[in-house]
Amino acid sequence: MSDTHFLFLEQLRALANAERAAGMASYHKVKREYLGLTNPQVNDLTKEWRKEMTVDERVEVADGLWQTDIFEARLAATKLLTQARIRPDDAVWDLLQSWVPDFDSWALADHACSAIQKRLVADPTRLDAVETWTTSENLWTRRAALVATLPWTKQNNPKQEELECRERILRWAATYAQDQKWFIQKSVAWWLRDLSKHDAQRVHDFLAVNGEHLKNFARKEALKYLK
User: Fold this and answer.
1) How far is it, in rounded angstroms, from Cα 153 to Cα 156?
2) pLDDT tens digits, 97-120
3) CA-CA distance, 152 to 138, in Å (whole number)?
């Protein structure tokens, strides 16, 4: 890791708000430094940074920002790499993968998963790597396997290979249904809820087999858009 990220970190620190940072620390309940920036502030900065940086530079800076363990720096790191078209993207994928074991809350994990989603859609063979997350001891890593694969809930007319991916992920979800941890149950419900907008019958079929293992709130969430 080089020191090039320090210039970008200084820009984040220049917008720090101590009062808001204290509120964020209380809300997120994860011990790390918070600067008190809003999401739009981080969005605006990273949008400008991306315009001036090559992919390799973005990877380098994102790596440095993530390693600081400052909330807004990690948030900015994810946004630097959230883009559908990146070529080549192997270095981006490798860096995103390296962050997954660090996930310790939903907030940063979800932003990182947004970036991961785009790399998976670009190359679905990467689901092989994601499958290894499903047996991790880290709850947030396991959860990420479903959050990162949400694009496979959204096809109205999926191709055969997309259906195969969908069924593969639903097998993971079936295993997760028996895990009673709230955030894992929530991730299953989220996946099914989004799928129900595009393939209601498949959700009904899943629940017929696995619904008894889900907590009540998860079943209700999964059925939110179904009659």
Assistant:
1) 9
2) 999 999 999 999 999 999 999 999
3) 23
d(CA 187, CA 141): 12
pLDDT in tens, 132-153: 999 999 999 999 999 999 999 9
Q: Is the pLDDT of residue 11 over 90?
A: yes
User: In whole angstroms, how far apart are CA 206 and each of 42, 108, 142, 147, 149?
Assistant: 39, 29, 20, 18, 17
Contacts (Cβ under 8 Å, ≥6 apart) of 101 = 136, 138, 141
Torsion over CA: 174, 176, 181, 185 (sign): negative
What is the C-alpha separation between 18 and 36, in angstroms, rounded?
6
Evaluate if residue 1 carries a pLDDT over 60: no
Task: Output the CA–CA distances (angstroms, integers) from residue 43 to 36, 39, 50, 73, 82, in the order listed.
Answer: 14, 6, 11, 12, 11
Alpha carbon dihedral 26, 27, 28, 34, in 10-degree steps, equals -60
Cβ within 8 Å of residue 59, ≥6 positions away: 81, 91, 92, 95
Average pLDDT over residues 23-35: 96
3-state secondary structure labels for all residues of 98-150:
HHHHHCCCHHHHHHHHHHHHHHHHHCHHHHHHHHHHCCCCCHHHHHHHHHCCH
Residues counted in the chain:
227
SS3 assignment, position 54: coil
pLDDT of residue 2: 61
